[in-house]
């Protein structure tokens, strides 16, 4: 089985999920993560704090995490916030899109998805990585960086050298190491980038009114404002549930950088006003941070004996919360294609050009459409051109008419779920 060995660089959510899928299929895999390993006490210290960031996991991503045995840990932790409705609206315009309306049980699945903090997902995956049913096929190396990659030819694959001098050979090398991917750079794969000249302010807020298991997104002239349900983690939260939310507030870069310098109460008041007090006043605000927004896509997802997944391959605007979900679909498609070609070849084909190209043909066009769709939506609602009266009229009429077409709304909800 040595010739079927797979080396995954990057132990985040996408990389760890792929490692578990391959190990479950009894395929030897090594996972390298540059971050030092955490013991359980270190994990609990991280999990003891509410993270302002959440991932909006689609049903497809939840199904994949269930398949690898991680979702069961997340459910047991009670650190997830399922949502059954999505509300999208624009201020100063007509039209509102409401997915999963409780008045129309046929409109969408009962649960559209779940909001989960990044550390909660990572902890569940790392718990699974050490469990007996996968440990025979899985090697995890934490706390070491890859410093060199040498291609040895199509039959042998890559020799990877770590910062401690260890060399590892692998038939297939997987880059799951994020937007600044070392693997992608070493493979000489370029990226197409789009800078939105926007910055997102991220924080956790406690609102006067409960979120009622609804993910909200206001389309503002300055950018999108997302209010996403957070799990209740303290005893006080559980007595008065559904009042904590994660905020992703997109603003022009200069405006965001100026706002982030203000005190917490000032930011909270500005945020409540920007939402037109959709959930009342903001009682508390925590973990305020900011990050610049840009989209990017690798010019190729594959090379000889090498494949990119997740953020190493693509990064999209966060306005629809689909970044991680696209990466999880990468994992699903890649694993299925690897196992399909391995089986039909009688156990001789692993990570061949044919297999990898099939994965690229399946995923890259889909991810491109998603990236450009999010960019178009951002253009349609934010910026000076978006405020031109003809654009406003088209946007208002479009949202109003779409909201009245129930089959189309059901289709959108199904697409958002990923299943």
From TrEMBL:
InterPro entries: FAD-bd, FAD/NAD-bd_sf, Ubi_Hdrlase_CS, UbiH/COQ6, UbiH/COQ6_monooxygenase
Single annotated GO MF: oxidoreductase activity, acting on paired donors, with incorporation or reduction of molecular oxygen
Gene Ontology biological process terms, A to Z: ubiquinone biosynthetic process
Pathway: Cofactor biosynthesis; ubiquinone biosynthesis
Keyword Transmembrane helix carried by entry: no
Top-level taxon in the UniProt lineage: Bacteria
Domain FAD-binding residue range list: 6-368
Keywords carried by this UniProt record: FAD, Flavoprotein, Monooxygenase, Oxidoreductase
UniProt keyword annotation of Flavoprotein present: yes
Pfam families found in the cross-reference section: FAD_binding_3 (PF01494)
Cofactor: FAD
Protein family: Belongs to the UbiH/COQ6 family.
Name under which the protein is recorded: 2-octaprenyl-3-methyl-6-methoxy-1,4-benzoquinol hydroxylase
Biological source species: Psychrobacter piscatorii
Lineage of origin: Bacteria, Pseudomonadati, Pseudomonadota, Gammaproteobacteria, Moraxellales
